[in-house]
Design a protein that fits this description.
The protein is an alpha/beta fold. 39% of the residues lie in helices and 16% in strands. The strands form 5 sheets. The protein has a 7-stranded mixed sheet with strand order 4-10-9-8-7-5-6, with helices on both faces. A 4-stranded antiparallel sheet has the order 13-14-17-16, with helices on one face. Helix 8 links the parallel strand 8 (214-217) and strand 9. 46% of the residues are buried.
Length: 423
């Protein structure tokens, strides 16, 4: 195969991404100065996890250096300080997603735990044989497997909204799936493997016509765009700290207060009880009822710093910048001979999955890595998406607001390097 020279140059493409000084923003992320295999790191694996600004790293370090104590249980100074910092973050999260009250914010270890918490605490109480749970073909495994486990336990059935060749869910098919047996709709806000932005508001409105609550998996949405849970009117919303520039091991379950109130605790233990005797235990009020044991205190406080950081830049700028970068990246990648973008939804976030002829994505990823370029290859924990497109795997570049046009160019140069090797 003859390898063509790069056809598309950066200058050819109009791309309005000068909404902020990206070099100044990059200064906030120490890891971006790192060199990998002797090359400057080009980090394009943000959908897996994002990098952390210095302010988040410093907040965690300050906590362990001068504030560390267990929360909700000490009269001493440090315990009170740690409790205050932990609970301040709950208020920050509430304001961040515009929840109605702090009681609606449950700290978890991440999106996965948040979804499992709903499956156990809500689903096991409320689902019966013959009930139906609707998910979509776009879901991450963490929004499939917990429901399958629940179906095995309760006799409920999983129904799946199909997607079209662009990676958009087929709304008419969704409407056909909804009926009186629908007891929950659990759907991803933004697909991690294709970047599709789902019309969640419409999905929620339709589900509510059948009184079915809706859980939104927002793991990939919160890092990129403003989420307002009251405006969406979703019943549950789940996301992870580590994908939104915060630490690993912390996440959020938002739930409407009446639904959380009705939920059974998932984990039993310290901090979630009012009284314990061997005959009977009574539970704490929300949110403690659903937060047993010592939580990830440093992680929660670090998440608060990540929220401050996002607020400082502002979602308007983040979304506008990323849209420009996505536009640019899609155009230059489309210019690469033999490269096919998988996922061309009408509304897309800055995630690009692609395949190149029969070159295995793992080979692409390994060769790019030698150039310091980090992408993800594989099924991205969305095997049903791969099956839908009849592919075993894709290569995926996923962007954050600290990525640049120059990094997109380096990715394209790296891909031409792959093509030359395989010619
Ligand atoms: N939902 C979506 C849409 C995701 O993208 C992920 C992680 C999860 C749930 C699970 O999040 P966790 O923080 O609980 O692990 N997605 C990816 C990814 O795309 N590459 O690595 C992890």
């Amino acid at each position: 195969m003859e390898v063509a020279e790069r056809k598309t140059l950066a200058e050819d493409i109009f791309c309005p991404i000068d909404v902020f000084d990206v070099e100044e923003i990059r200064e906030d992320f120490p890891i971006l100065r790192k060199r990998v295999h002797g090359k400057r790191l080009v980090y394009l694996d943000n959908a897996a996890t994002s990098q952390k600004p210095q302010s988040v790293i410093d907040t965690i370090s300050t906590y362990y250096t001068g504030e560390n104590a267990n929360i909700h249980r000490g009269v001493h100074y440090l315990s009170q300080l740690a409790t205050q910092r932990y609970e301040e973050t709950r208020t920050k999260v509430k304001d961040f997603i515009n929840a109605g009250s702090e009681k609606e914010i449950i700290f978890t270890s991440g999106t996965t735990e948040a979804i499992n918490l709903v499956a156990h605490g809500y689903g096991r109480l409320n689902f019966r044989e013959g009930d139906e749970i609707i998910v979509s073909n776009l879901e991450h495994h963490s929004n499939i497997v917990p429901w399958q486990l629940l179906c095995e336990q309760t006799g409920a059935k999983l129904r799946v909204i199909p997607i079209d060749d662009n990676g958009d869910i087929i709304l008419d098919e969704y409407k056909k799936l909804l009926n009186e047996k629908t007891k929950l709709v659990a759907i991803v806000h933004i697909s991690n493997s294709l970047g599709t932005i789902n019309p969640v508001k419409e999905i929620i409105t339709l589900a509510h016509e059948y009184s079915a609550p809706v859980l939104i998996d927002g793991a990939q949405a919160v890092p990129h765009s403003k989420v307002d849970v009251q405006e969406l009117d979703c019943d549950f919303y789940c996301f992870s700290g580590h994908k939104m520039f915060g630490p690993t091991g912390v996440g959020i379950l938002y739930g409407k207060e009446d639904l959380l109130e009705d939920m059974a605790p998932f984990l039993g233990g310290g901090d979630m009880i009012k009284t314990v005797t061997f005959e009977k235990t009574t539970y704490s009020d929300l949110p403690s009822k659903l937060e047993a044991g010592t939580p990830n205190i440093a992680g929660v406080i670090g998440l608060g710093a990540a929220i401050d950081y996002i607020n400082k830049i502002g979602y308007n700028k983040i979304s506008a910048y990323e849209e420009g970068l996505l536009n640019y990246a899609q155009k230059v990648l489309q210019g690469v001979d033999g490269l096919r973008i998988i996922g061309t939804a009408h509304h897309k976030a800055a995630v690009i999955s692609f395949v190149i002829g029969d070159i295995h994505p793992h080979d692409i990823g390994t060769i790019l890595d030698q150039n310091g370029i980090a992408i993800r290859t594989g099924h991205h924990c969305t095997q049903p998406v791969m099956e839908r497109f009849n592919l075993p795997a894709t290569s995926r570049a996923s962007f954050a607001f600290y990525n640049t046009k120059e990094e997109v160019d380096q990715l394209v140069d790296g891909i031409y390097g792959v093509l030359r090797l395989f010619k």
